[in-house]
Amino acid sequence: MADAVLVLNAGSSSIKFALIEKSGARVAYGEIERIGEAPHFQGFDHDGAVLVDRHWADGAALSHEDLLGPLLDWAETHLGADRLIGVGHRIVHGGTDFSAPVRLDPTIMAALDRLTPLAPLHQPHNLAAIRAVTALRPDLPQIGCFDTGFHHAMPEVATRLPLPARYHAAGVRRYGFHGLSYEFIAARFAALDPAAAAGRVIAAHIGNGASACAMLGGRSIDTSMGFTALDGLMMGTRTGALDPGVVLYMIEQERRSAAEISHILYSESGLLGVSGLDADMRNLLASTSSDAVLAVDLFCYRAAREIAGLTVALGGVDALIFTAGIGEHAAPVRRMICDKLAHFGIGLDDAANQRHGPIISSRASRVAVWVIPTDEEAMIARHTVEMLRGEPA
User: Fold this and answer.
1) Per residue in 51-104, pLDDT tens?
2) Shortest CA distance to 18 belongs to which of 39, 43, 48?
3) Could you tell me which of 112, 68, 66 has the C-alpha nearest to residue 91?
4) What would the pLDDT profile of 131-145 be if each residue is shown by its tens digit?
5) Are 223 and 211 in contact (CB under 8 A)?
6) Average pLDDT, the chain
């Protein structure tokens, strides 16, 4: 083993982590789940063997700081004689000021706190983990990596919302998310096919959260998510793009509160809402329920429509990349989406699609279609090591 960084992705009820060497080799990964109920800490080696399995059956009152202590202790013990040299964090929102990873300090944290209204469901938990690590290991460097950063250079026509200018001045604009995933995919595709990566590429990050990104020369030109991570593609429990009049209906006719509407849009909609059964694509594909079939069909239709729309930003498309949980593993979903995009000259090789790629397009296809696994943790680790390089040991 060698010196390593700890990558953290903290949510409201879970902390996902990865322990990654400076070389990029993954030492361990896992999750502390059910925070606020009965926390469960599991860690695995790179082959999936269990390294740690700890429960707190009476741990409903345990905070992020309470649980990050055992995680940091375990990580340092697991490294043995080698060092934990830093912690890299996924931070959902960087606003207009943070386009690149930063060394986290009190001034930066104050600025990130001010962005909480732009990501109220995510930012507080990201920042809570940073503060917890600061309290537990005040001398351990921490690096923030932003999900909005990759989209920072999108042109104004892609970022502006058709609202009065005062809203834009207040930060109400399209930001885009899943940027760490798209940054990884852009770099990976450039290594696999440099000529294609220099052209017009649409990447579809399709999982429980789903979005698509138009890239030209490896740079984000436009993306389906906008002001929040609710926009664009239909998702596991999120609506995707929605007529604002629906929200007005909920307010005026149903007398819903902001909190109730937020819960409906983020947690009760998407695949779960349409099917009435499940948000898990695997279960819906296996179901014979007419509502499950409709949910899958709507998911694929909405994804194809958003992908097609992004061709406007590029003036066409040369390559389409599927990534994330559904994109990497659900061959029927890829087939249904691509069938709806056949007028672009997209055709799949069925055998390659069933093998999950890496190239799944047919020889006759005018657009190359790929399946490329994403690795946001590796991207965060790479940024963290690069930021720490050259600092005193």
Assistant:
1) 999 999 888 898 888 999 999 999 999 998 889 999 999 999 999 999 999 999
2) 43
3) 112
4) 999 999 999 999 999
5) yes
6) 94
Short-list 176, 198, 208, CA closest to 368: 198
Rounded to the nearest 10 degrees, what angle do helices 290-314 and 331-340 cross at? 60
Radius of gyration (C-alpha) of the chain in whole angstroms: 21
User: Can 147 be counted among the known catalytic residues?
Assistant: yes
Token pair 């202590």 is found at 69
Task: Give the residue among 192, 157, 193, 150 at the shortest CA–CA distance from 174.
Answer: 157
pTM over 0.90: yes
* pLDDT of residue 1 exceeding 60: no
Q: How confident is the model at residue 16 (pLDDT cuts 50, 70, 90)?
A: very high
Model confidence at 392: pLDDT above 50: no
Q: Are 301 and 292 in contact (CB under 8 A)?
A: no
Residue 390 is encoded by which pair of tokens?
Answer: 């050259």
pLDDT average, residue stretch 185-208? 97
pLDDT for position 393: 37
Q: Which residues contact 178 (CB under 8 A, 6 or more apart)?
A: 147, 205, 209, 211, 213, 223, 225
157: three-class secondary structure by DSSP: helix
Q: Where are the beta strands (DSSP E) in 150-295?
A: 200-206, 210-216, 219-223
Q: Are 310 and 222 in contact (CB under 8 A)?
A: yes
Options 45, 82, 139, 147, the catalytic residue: 147
Q: What does each C-alpha distance from 261 to 11, 258, 264, 269, 348 come to in angstroms?
A: 20, 5, 5, 11, 40
Nearest of 174, 216, 197, 196 to residue 315 by alpha carbon: 216
pLDDT of 119 reads 83
- Residue 189 CB partners (closer than 8 Å, separation 6+): 196, 197, 201, 203, 218, 319, 321, 370, 372
**CB contact at 8 A, 171 and 193:** no
Domains of the chain in sequence order: 4-146 (3.30.420.40), 194-376 (3.30.420.40)
Dihedral sign for Cα atoms in the order 326, 328, 329, 330: positive
C-alpha distances in Å from residue 265, one per residue of 38, 246, 283: 27, 10, 22
CA distance 23 to 4: 8
Cα separations (Å) of 373 from 104, 136, 322?
29, 34, 8
